[in-house]
Amino acid sequence: MVKSLLIKNCGQLLTMRGNGLGIIKNGFVYCEDGKVVKVGKGRAPKADRTIDAEGKVVMPGLIDCHTHAVFAGSRANEFKLRADGKSYLDILKAGGGIHSTVNATRKASKAHLLTNTLKHLKDMRSYGITTVEIKSGYGLDLETEVKILEVARVAGKKQSINVLTTFLGAHTCPKGQKPRQYLKFVMNEVLPKVEADFVDIFCEKGAFTLRQSRKFLKKAKELGFKLKIHGEQINRLGACNMAAKLGAVSCDHCDRLSRGDIKKLAQTGTVAVLLPIVPLYTGEDKYADGRALIDAGVRVAISTDFNPGSAPSKNIFLAMSLACLEMGLTVEEALRGVTVNAALALDLSDRGVFAKGKRADIVIMDTTDYREIPCFVGENLVKKVFTGGEMHPK
Ligand SMILES: [Zn+2]
Fold it and tell me: What is the pTM of this model?
């Protein structure tokens, strides 16, 4: 690794400082030992390696703060059935849905899962993603849940992209079990044995009730875990409000929040993670009201929710475009949603912004105008990616 790195001639250097993009025109970013040392314009320090950004947009590495990237099997058959006009019930009858992913993931070896995950992480980095959160939840038993979290951690070390892990053993109830019994098992037998940065639960009709979710998150909190929740995706059960009161770091989905819920998130400082590829893909067509959240003072992050069932896409550019088109975000808010606010959604303060001491995770975009990033819907504008000062091919 080179000791010092200078990226000069940055037409628009998006520092993400302050409340907007903190743009420095014709700026530079100078890094040493994988950390940002100086950001500015004019005379720059000399470095071991100098990269000319050729007047393009340069910004902090993107952060995807909500994915389910460790899984086996394919759900392409379901896509085909849907495209052929078959109903959700037809798909379930044909063996589709989350349980098909659970079966395939349980059967898969660690080596197979690792190969899959390394490929996904490489794809993500090609989209400029330098930090990603990965959830378990396709095991629904002790052995597989532990296996998924381990694969996520190992993949992050091998692929030079930062991985944070979330235990989502309470993703849904395994076939043939009752949610109450299963959750008791997860709380008593699995939770004390897992290693993860966060604990999450899917609070939704057909998954876990509000009461069950509260009990589960309280237990996770007692054990010292930081909390997240999948809430208000299809029905409003009060999940986000409850999780915010418990001090959750983020509430994810938030498609159906009441005014009171939004107020609660603003009061507690809980980040709302919005996942616009999900309603696009599932045809639910009910997008979170990002505008109302931001106007109320809630910090909003944007993520792909990459998973094989409801959002089979690693395209964070598409998520940004949809956040502007369907959730009322401005271009600047969408860009903050995948950098500084996504870092907050992972409780990280060392990235997502260019300032002294922050990680040298950097993206050079192939455009001179930041507004083109979400404007070219779903187009990957990444030219070069750096993680901790190390350059990767696109
Ligand atoms: Zn999810």
Answer: 0.97
